[in-house]
Amino acid sequence: MNQNILTAEDDLQIQSFIDYALKHEGYSCITASNGEEAIRKAREENTAIMILDLGLPDMDGKEVIRTVRLESQMPIIVVSARDRESEKIAALDAGADDYLTKPFSATELMARIRVAERHLKNQIRQEDSGGSEVRELRIDLNKRLVYLAEKELHVTPMEYQLLEYFFQNIGKVLTTKSIIEVLWGKGYGSDTQALRSLMAGLRRKIEKNPAKPEYIITEIGVGYRLLDQ
Ligand code: CA
Questions:
Q1: Mean of the pLDDT values across residues 146-171?
Q2: What is the DSSP string of 57-94?
Q3: How far is the CA of 16 from the centre of ligand 1 (A)?
Q4: What CATH number does residue 107 fall under?
Q5: Quick check: is 120 in a domain?
Q6: 7 C-alpha vs ligand 1 centroid, how far in Å?
Q7: Is the separation of the CB atoms in 4 and 46 below 8 Å?
Q8: Residue 87 counted as domain residue
Q9: How far is the CA of 31 from the centre of ligand 1 (A)?
Q10: Is a pLDDT exceeding 60 seen at residue 6?
């Protein structure tokens, strides 16, 4: 595989832990210790994925994300401290794809990298296939139909839209605010009740046990995620 992964982190211990874990899996590592350097290397080096610590000394992480997003759609995984929930959500809404909470294990790191890679492949593949599937759940984006275990599921137009958004972002966490904006438009970002009841209805159709979802899981305090496996 041997893709370049850029890690922006000012804590040398965490930086070398990430480097070690990535190299062990055969990736090439590019490192940056501040926001300015991260933006420059994202632009100049052939980087596939970026891991971005939100606590960099020179710049707000959201600023780094917005600047990189002007030129690149590369997956950005943000790293933040456990008590900085709002910072993490703001970073996702600014265009980051996923997050890791400190402290994290090499296993968690690699799981996030695999989701990012699947997303990179999907961006290319979805254009020609017009469909996508996760285990027994399948969506046909051309015919706008949903299947569960090969049987067509009857979903409402809103439920379809919700599922389509998840299928465009398999494995990725989607913030409550971003989902509401996709479904109802900007300005409705704080109206979470409608989303909660829409989600409950959809879960009754796709989940064996809606109280213990296996497809769309809740990321407490952040949003939801369509699980890859
Ligand atoms: Ca830091």
A1: 94
A2: SSS-HHHHHHHHHTT----EEEEEETT-HHHHHHHHHT
A3: 13
A4: 3.40.50.2300
A5: no
A6: 12
A7: yes
A8: yes
A9: 13
A10: yes
State CA 21 to chain mean position distance.
20
Q: Ligand 1 centroid to 46 CA: how many Å?
A: 24
User: Does one domain contain both 103 and 206?
Assistant: no
Pairing of strands 28-32, 223-226: unpaired
CA 15 to ligand 1 center in whole angstroms: 10
22 CA from centroid of ligand 1 (Å): 19
With respect to residue 125, please indicate whether it lies within any of the assigned structural domains. no
Domain match, 16 and 108 both: yes
- Tell how far the Cα of 1 is from the centroid of ligand 1, in angstroms: 29
Q: Which domain holds residue 153?
A: 130-226
The pLDDT of residue 125 = 59
Residue 122, domain member (yes or no): no
Total number of domains in the chain: 2
Can you tell me which residue has the tokens 């159709």? 205
Whether the pTM exceeds 0.90: the reply is no
Q: What is the pLDDT of residues 37-85, one digit of tens each?
A: 999 999 999 899 999 999 999 999 999 999 999 989 899 999 998 778 8
For residue 173, what is the domain's CATH number? 1.10.10.10
Work out the mean pLDDT of the chain and round it to a whole number: 91
